[in-house]
Amino acid sequence: IQLGSSFLQSVLSCVQSLRARIVQSFLQPHPQH
């Protein structure tokens, strides 16, 4: 259970970081487009 909880926490942190990066990319204007 400890391994599972730690794994879930790490996954959640990774998801949050990825989500933040995606949101920033969407908010920022893309020079390519």
Task: Give your account of this protein's structure.
With 33 residues, the chain is mainly α. It is built from 1 helix and no strands. The N and C termini lie far apart (47 Å).
Q: Give the overall pLDDT as a whole number.
A: 86
Structural class: mainly alpha
Quote the distance from N terminus to C terminus. 47 Å
Hey, roughly how much beta strand do the residues contain? under 5%
**Biggest sheet layout:** none
What is the alpha-carbon Rg in Å? Answer: 15 Å
Number of helices: 1
Overall number of strands:
0
Q: Order of SSEs, N→C?
A: H
* Multimerization status: single chain
The 3D shape can be described as rod-shaped
Helical coverage, percent range: over 70%
Low-confidence stretches: none
Key structural traits:
Kell blood group glycoprotein, single chain, 33 residues, mainly alpha
How would you summarize what this structure contains?
The chain has one helix at 2-27. It contains one helix and no strands. This is Kell blood group glycoprotein.
Write the layout of secondary structure elements.
Elements: H1 2-27
